[in-house]
Amino acid sequence: MSKIRFGIDIDGTVTCPTSLLPHINKAYKRNLTIDDIREYDLTKALPDIEPAEFGKWFKLAEAEIYATSPIRDYAREVLSEWNEQYELFFISARGSNVQDITDKWFLEHEVVYDHIELIGSHDKLATAKMHGVHAFFEDKHDNAVAIHEALNIPVILFDAPYNRDPIPDGVYRVNDWLEAKQQIEQLFAIQKAR
Questions:
Q1: Given 37, 127, 128, 130, which is the most exposed site by the fewest CB atoms within 10 A?
Q2: Is the pLDDT assigned to residue 184 strictly greater than 70?
């Protein structure tokens, strides 16, 4: 029997959701914290900055942001443990222009994987479907709901102030990778019994 395959977002899921904040605070002389980020669109927390200007800044800063993003607590340990039992397919909105930086980050942080796909878009549904994932890990609320509803698979949503809208049954809110592990063990208990 083939292994269960997980689709896993990178930013805000494997990396800390606060990864961008030191860079934004430095560039725009702010003191934003994660609690100030109430929407996934970061420009909503910077109402005096034109979205186009922020977009230009991000394009210039993204390599450094991705290279220096801290890993989320317990991500390495849980993913390493899962590597024996599950296939780990990372599906990210990052563009292919940062593939080398992403590969290097995974190596430096000793994060195991079977596949990394940088699709350059937040629409991960088609990629998740193409790879036939059995569960997905995400921090973007609308992605979590859309993937669950379209593919009828469980989605683990990593809690953050920007994703606290209601979630349907089948989307499971967790605070960290240890809770994600507990949830997966419950969802895939039949698999473990074999």
A1: 130
A2: yes
